[in-house]
Structures are given as structure tokens and as C-alpha cells.
Amino acid sequence: MTTKRNIVILGGGTAGWMTAAAMAKFIPARHYNITLIASAEIGTVGVGEATIPHIRQFNELLGIDENTFIKEVGATYKLAIRFKGWGKSDSDYCHGFGYSGEVINDVEFHHYYLRAGGAAKLGHYDNYNIAALAARAHRFNYPQDNTGDARSHFGYAFHIDASLYAAYLKRYSLARGVSFIDARVTDVVQHPSGDIASLLLDNGQSLHGDLFIDCSGFRGRLIEQTLASGYENWQHWLPCDSAQAAASDAIDNPPSYTLSAAHQAGWRWQIPLQHRTGNGIVYASQWLSDEQASEQLLGAIGDSADMPRQLRFVTGKRKKSWLHNCVAIGLSSGFLEPLESTSLYLVQAAIEKLIEYFPATEQCQGAREAFNHYIDTEYERVRDFLIFHYYQNQRPEPFWQAMSAIELPDSLQARLAQFRESGHFNAYRQGLFMPVSWTTLALGQGLQPQAVSPRISHIESGAIAQRLNRDASQLDDWVASMPTHQHAIDVTKNGAAHYPAASRSLYGANNK
Ligand SMILES: Cc1cc2nc3c(=O)[nH]c(=O)nc-3n(C[C@H](O)[C@H](O)[C@H](O)COP(=O)(O)OP(=O)(O)OC[C@H]3O[C@@H](n4cnc5c(N)ncnc54)[C@H](O)[C@@H]3O)c2cc1C
């Protein structure tokens, strides 16, 4: 008989319980014990309410029924992020989970749109994105089966109560054999090799492990405080370092988008849930004081049941997410502000990769390196996209002026140079985001390419405009016939919604 190996997860926030649930589902209980330790005294970050469509895949992998999930976590649907005041102070565009227009004769839609006169002649680029249009109209429908047009070609995500999601996954994990200990880790014992041997708890227990997963939040109790992985600080590119969060009342027929409204030194979010609205302000403390931030947040939301909760962060990532026999997942592995709702996606990506590379023995140097490379790529791609939001602006405030003058990472510099020259963004083979997302941001925030594809230079611009106007009014008709967002939520709560498979509706803006 072989002895069972011990997987120890430190941390009971969203990252910890997402990890525990996936491990319980995919790692055979005959050979592994899984234990999660978390201290109620320490608590969790507990924000993390806006998601991207990949969360549907995660739930599907776990076998979670989507209607049940929506009821349990107070979720609403999400089709887009609405960016107000990004670019210019009065700009307003939506990054929808879908395509804008169609690829015609192998040439992307935006080349036709720009050739026909762009925003000046045809209105916003996102007028051609069904998910963005439906979000603006506070409507929701599932992507339809095989219509072969925009009605099939979009995805959706959720606004969730992150604490309820963690609680739901806790029940899921415990029912599948995960052991839970409510205690604080006070010390860590290491082997001479540097590997972690066991955790000493404040209840006197010593917990031996073979693999440790650090989901202990910003502090990185194992990956940093014990193993000293080191941190790549990206604040020179993304200088926001503070946030405040506060809840307000639920909204009737809430928007099916996350709101991100830029202010003089950062941005403010609004995330509608069934039972409340999550609000927050993200800012650079060098440019805006905590008092000014609270004032702005409360001014925008009116009455709030609670005083804003203060959070601090350092944007960046651990130099190595997997070091020795410890893998960091969640905030212990890094932090990128939630401007594109990517944190839970990064948790999910790390979990799925760890399970794919799961080490059969203690010899796992290859898996470790491949995992770290994968995580680095995921973080860097999100980072570049976030920097682009700040850099591409024409706002007058000192913070924004400074942001438009920063020195870009080489990877982003090269990407933007290609778009400026030719209107083209390369597709990544791994990581967020797809070219349509980059194009949406570029056009939404006023970056025009110098040229469009020469392959359509022979087509008369008036003829293209006529066709695009027809397409836009067709999209408007389709959106007008969708149910209101509130109706869609009510149907789901009654358990009557027939949702599509996650793999089928994973289109558009945020593909892996
Ligand atoms: C302002 C803000 C807004 C955000 N918005 C979004 C969003 O819209 N969308 C999104 O996807 N993400 C968002 N995030 C990120 C998201 O909140 C986190 O990714 C997510 O909550 C996961 O956190 P975590 O589980 O890694 O850490 P935490 O929630 O901090 O959990 C840490 C856990 O470790 C335990 N712990 C720590 N030390 C010890 C110890 N010594 N002994 C025992 N237990 C210990 C704690 O008890 C706790 O259970 C946001 C984050 C911030 C800061």
C-alpha cells in the first residue's frame, strides 16, 4: 500500500477555495489528502466581484449548475465593461465580450469601418458589437445556437459576491473530502533543501505537507515570507496603489456591464449584484489623498450602508510563483488592478495549469519552470493591456499627463507601433486579450492607425458605409428584442434558464 501524499492549501479566500474545489475534483482522493488552513481572525480581501467569461468554463469543469451558482452568489450577468472618461474626459465606450462586426474576405471589420469614415461618419466602433449594445441597453440574452451571425458570436460573465462564491466552493470542497482547519500559521519548518516540511499552527498542531499552495493573500506567507521569492514591482507603469470599497443599494434592472469611470487620478467602479451594488475607487496616493478619494466615492454613490473600506496594494508579481514545493495562487502571486476584471481569471489560469502539470514525484523542476513561464506570460499580457488604458489618454490632469509620458515596456511599444502603422494587432497564442479587445480600446480612446489594410483600398467608401449602416440597424433590432437584464435574472432564479455550454459561448474580448 502506498502512503497518501499531502496537499496543504494556506488561505480561505476566493483563491484558496477555488484551488481546493478544483483539486478535490481532479486530484484522486485515493492518493492525496487535501487540507485547507485559514484563519478567521485574518479575514479575506473579499472584493473581486467582476469576472470575465472564463469563469463559466471553471464552473463547468467543476460540474456546477449555472442557475444554482447565480442564485447562490447573488450574481448578475455581465456582457461588457463600460469605460467612461478614459481617453478624453468625455469619452464613453464599451469593451464587450464579443466581436465588433464581421471579418469580410479575411480582412478585419475595423479596416472597413475606418475606410468608411470611422466614428465621425458611423458612430462608435462598439455600435457594431452586440454584447456592448445589449449591455448599454441593460439587456441580456444568451448567445443563440448557430445563427451564424452576431447573435451567436459573443460571450458573457457575471458580477458575483466573491465572499458568497468562496463560501459556496467551501461547501463544495468539504463535501468532496477536503479537510478544513481554522487556525493561524505561526511558523514554517523547512527541509535542508529549502522545501517546506510543515506548518506550525496557533492551535499547537504541526501539519506536514508534500506540496504547499500559498493562497494567503498579499502577504505571501509561504512564497515570500518563508521562501523569499522576490517581487517585480510594476508601479512605475501602473502607479495606482490604493482602493476604497463600499456597498450601496441594489439597482432595479441593473446594467449588464461593469462601470469603470476615470477620475483625476485613477478610476471608480460600479458592480451591480442582486442584493447590493459594489462600488470602489482606485487611485494613486501620490496624486489623490485618502480623504479626497472617500469624498469622491461617497459623492458618486450617495448613501452607503458602510464607510469605505481602505485597501493598499503594490502592482506587480512574484519573481517565481512556484518555488521549491510551494505554488502561489491569487494575491500571493501578484496583483494587477481590476480594471479588466482579470484577477479571478489569473487564479483560474494558475489552478488549471497546476493541475495540468501536476507533479507525479518530488522531481518537478521541468513542471516548475514551465508553470512559472506560463504565469509570467499571463501577467505580462494583462499588464500591457492595463498600461495601454492609462497611456492612451488626452486628459488634462497632471496624473494623466504623466501617464501619457511614461516609458512603455518593449512588448507594448512594439504592439502599438504595429497598430499605428497598419491598424493591426497580432493575436497572442497564450493569454489575454484578443486583437478585437485591443482595437476596441485603441479606437475608444482615440488612437487611429495611419493606414488601413491596402487589400480594401479599391472598395468605394460610400458603399462600405451603406452596408455598415444596415448592419448597425440590424444589431439595434436584435438588441431591442432581448429581455431586460432584470427579467433574465428573475428567470434564472426560478431555475428556468437554459444556458449554453461554456465552451460554446467563450467568444470575443477575453479569449485565452
Ligand atoms: C480593490 C480590489 C478590487 C478587486 N476587484 C476584483 C474584481 O473586480 N474582479 C476580480 O477578479 N478580482 C478582483 N480583485 C482581486 C480579488 O479580490 C482577489 O484576487 C481574490 O479575492 C483572491 O484573493 P485571495 O484569496 O488570493 O486572498 P485573500 O482574500 O486575502 O485571502 C487570504 C486568506 O489567507 C488566510 N491567511 C493569510 N495568512 C494566514 C496565516 N498566517 N494563517 C492562516 N491563514 C492565513 C486568510 O485568513 C485568508 O483566508 C480585487 C482586489 C482588490 C484589492
UniProtKB/TrEMBL annotation:
Protein's recorded name: Tryptophan 7-halogenase
Superkingdom of the organism of origin: Bacteria
Pfam families documented for this protein: Trp_halogenase
InterPro entries: FAD/NAD-bd_sf (IPR036188), Flavin-dep_Halogenase_NPB (IPR050816), Flavin_halogenase (IPR006905), Trp_halogen (IPR033856)
